[in-house]
Amino acid sequence: MARRGAYAKGVAKREEILTAALDVIARNGYRRTSVRELADAVGLSQAGLLHYFASKEELFQEILRKRDDVDMAAFDDEREHRIDGFFALIRHNSEVPGLVQLYAQVSTEACDPEHPAHAFFVERYEQFREIFGKLLREEQAAGNIDPDLDADRIANLFLAAADGLQTQWMLDPSIDMADHVAYLWHLVTRRD
């Protein structure tokens, strides 16, 4: 029984680390946050913190996975139009620039098939395309989008637009990411 208790404590500590990391990185920024600061936030040494992860790269990947989980829970609510949750999520990103920086950095590094987060990002993009493609097909069925348009390709274009706008926003914070994505939605649906 002690083994199961130790495992549960390890899982709980790992969750505590990830939750604290979201806050620290969102507040300080990705480049200004060290592993030592993350460890200090949960009362561990750097070695103690990394004991819960196979590598520093896995730590950052799991921080991003936790971010996705938190974001989906916060913005996957019952709205009149499901797309509004997506716009709210993009709006929220402008409030957590450090996490946007982390995402941009790790996603770029993960383009290398040897990178530890490569599979995570491949899966993440597949999931996004599936979720967004489903939303677009529902809008097509409702008569809001031209049925001849390829929903999967449009989903991919929205993903590319959102990621590209994040990069532009990091360079010029006056860019309203959510407004631009909402405008793209309007162009596709011809609806506000």
Automatic annotation (TrEMBL):
Residues 34-53 bind DNA. It comes from the Bacteria. SUPFAM superfamilies: Homeodomain-like, Tetracyclin repressor-like, C-terminal domain. This is TetR family transcriptional regulator. PROSITE patterns: HTH_TETR_2 (PS50977). One of its GO terms (molecular function) is DNA binding. Pfam families: TetR_C_6 (PF13977), TetR_N (PF00440). The keyword Magnesium does not apply. Keywords: DNA-binding, Repressor, Transcription, Transcription regulation. InterPro entries: BetI_C, Homeodomain-like_sf, HTH_TetR, Tet_transcr_reg_TetR-rel_C_sf. Residues 11-71 form the HTH tetR-type domain.
